[in-house]
Design a protein that fits this description.
single chain, alpha+beta, Phosphorylase Kinase, domain 1, Aminoglycoside 3'-phosphotransferase, Chain: A, domain 2, 2 domains, globular
Length: 336
């Protein structure tokens, strides 16, 4: 099938789902524009209607992806993971912390969700030495509530129980990072990852990077892209976003507002977390953070995440986090 045929088929698919959205009976003036073909071969369209705007996301079969070799997981499986996890996020991020766009229509390989209006991703702020207040005021609270909401629930019969993509990401970001370390650190990180593979304390977003956090003009933060969600530990998600905040805090350490950024985020998160061993989560976060920071500099997409970091800060960051990797790590609050 040609690219044109694929796009035409996807547009028709989008219209079919839109027809099921309450209040969208008139589709004669709908505008559908492709805005992204993601790394994992997903198609994302911006949809404009007379009644409001939406995003349509359709999952395609994996094709050859430069620098990546993901497992052959079907579009239906990936769509199911994303829909389940995004629904959980929408249900748990309530009230003033309602940070996940709701899905308004779906089928086995696609969904339509509410638009986040005029938003830009968090990375665009961090790379300029800026961050919106919602990052330390609402995001850590919302993230902890998501983990609380899914703590020790039984997801064994759902798509979230599939570990193939979880294992792939751990190989890509942890085992390959471990190969670059000296023997003691390598053994400590590998042992840690082997233990993480067995953890299923809650649902984690799985890809909580700064491009999956959208910031609106009024500084509200929204979380998107739950396709890599899996069963694991809260420490995984906490370290995922902290890795980028930590990098920015070193690059821009001369800016007063960055000095306490990570500490404020972690304290607000841990103060909201319920039912977990907070001390253990804080220690696990340190090792996750070290691996995630090293991956941001050494992984195949390093230019996306750290191109704004100068060589001096890069050296300092890599030296610091390498020393965090020990068999008995300190609490994440002790390293900032």
């Amino acid at each position: 099938m040609s690219v044109t045929d694929i796009l035409n088929k996807s547009s028709a698919h989008c219209l079919a789902l839109l027809a099921s959205v309450r209040g969208l009976s008139d589709l004669s003036s709908v505008s559908i524009e492709l805005v992204e073909a993601g790394v994992w071969n997903n198609l994302i369209y911006e949809v404009k209607t007379l009644n409001g705007n939406y995003y349509f996301k359709e999952y395609q079969e994996f094709v050859e992806i430069p620098n990546y070799s993901p497992p052959n997981i079907s579009p239906a499986q990936r769509a199911s993971v994303a829909q389940i996890a995004q629904d959980l996020g929408s249900n748990s991020f309530k009230g003033q912390h309602g940070l996940v766009p709701a899905i308004v229509a779906r089928d086995s390989t696609a969904f339509v969700m509410e638009e986040v209006p005029s938003a830009d991703h968090l990375l665009s702020y961090l790379s300029k030495g800026e961050y919106p207040k919602s990052i330390v005021e609402t995001l850590p609270v919302a993230l902890a509530r998501f983990h609380n909401h899914t703590h020790l629930k039984d997801y064994s019969g759902t798509a979230l129980a599939d570990t193939r993509f979880k294992d792939y990401k751990l190989d890509l970001q942890y085992y390959k990072t471990a190969e670059l370390l000296e023997s003691t650190q390598k053994d400590a990180l590998i042992t840690f990852v082997e233990n993480y593979k067995q953890q299923n304390l809650c649902v984690v977003h799985g890809d909580l990077n700064s491009k999956n956090i959208l910031i609106t003009p009024n500084n509200a933060a929204y979380v998107i892209d739950f396709e890599q969600a899996h069963l694991g530990s809260p420490a995984y998600d906490l370290a995922f976003i902290l890795s980028e905040l930590y990098i920015a805090s070193i690059q821009f350490k001369d800016k007063a507002e960055f000095r306490d950024l990570c500490t404020l985020f972690v304290k607000r998160y841990l103060n909201t977390l319920e039912g977990f061993d907070r001390q253990q989560i804080a220690k696990e976060t340190t090792l996750h953070l070290a691996a995630q920071v090293l991956y941001r500099f050494q992984g195949p997409s390093h230019a996306v995440w750290t191109s704004y970091v100068d060589s001096k800060a890069r050296g300092e960051i890599i030296s610091r986090v390498s020393n965090f990797i020990t068999p008995d790590p300190v609490s994440i609050l002790e390293i900032f």
